[in-house]
Design goal:
Rossmann fold; 213 residues; two-stranded parallel ribbon; 8 helices; 6 strands; single chain; alpha+beta; four-stranded antiparallel β-sheet
């Protein structure tokens, strides 16, 4: 499929626009993601990774969504291209009034783009709150260890922080009983195996651990 056909497909499925209207919409969307309307006749293999991601963004915006779910949208891109795509997404967010559900393991990107953060472990939300709160003062043991794993120019200090995380990640198909993080948690107690801890309000956020300080 050409890039134009890829972007046009949601319009064919979800709208009653004419062929001319769809073509005009495709060209308009390409311009919005800073590509040329002439690119509509080209194929994806003719584009760079960053350009292909822009095509994906244009397709996602084709039908005027209010929420866009972006699963690792920049993980395969070079750092400089990541910044361009993130800046584009933020510009489009303001222009179109979008909300993003942004899924990523890149903590620096998450901090840059997020207003609120949900920290998850094996499918469970363990902490939720404003981005600045979680980055400046994480409360759940997993949040603390996750943020401590961010590379820093001090290898000795990093080894000391990482040493608190024990064992391997359990299989998502066979999660531990109770708190899924308990088998690796430095403050786990026997009672943690009894039930999944609920998210509770604490210091302006939600935390799924009764033993956080």
């Amino acid at each position: 499929m050409t890039v134009g056909a890829i972007i046009e497909e949601p319009l064919k499925i979800h709208t009653k626009q004419s062929k001319a209207e769809r073509r005009d919409r495709v060209h308009w969307l390409l311009e919005k993601v800073r590509l040329s309307p002439a690119h509509a006749s080209r194929y994806p293999h003719e584009f760079s990774g960053g350009q292909r991601q822009r095509v994906g963004i244009a397709r996602a915006l084709a039908t005027n969504p209010k929420i866009v779910i972006a699963d690792e949208p920049v993980s395969a891109l070079d750092v400089s291209i990541q910044a361009q795509v993130i800046n584009l997404m933020q510009d489009l967010q303001q222009e179109f009034g979008l909300s993003y559900i942004f899924i990523s393991h890149d903590l620096s990107v998450v901090r840059h783009i997020s207003d609120r953060i949900f920290v998850m472990y094996l499918g469970h939300i363990v902490e939720a709150g404003l981005a600045d709160q979680i980055y400046s003062h994480p409360m759940h043991p997993y949040s603390r260890i996750l943020l401590s794993a961010v590379p820093r120019p001090d290898p000795d200090a990093r080894r000391a922080r990482a040493a608190h995380l024990r064992d391997d990640v359990p299989s998502p198909l066979h999660k531990p009983s109770g708190c899924a993080f308990r088998t690796r948690c430095p403050i786990a107690r026997p009672v943690c195996a009894d039930a999944v801890p609920p998210l509770e309000e604490r210091n302006g956020r939600q935390v799924a651990c009764p033993y956080t300080e």
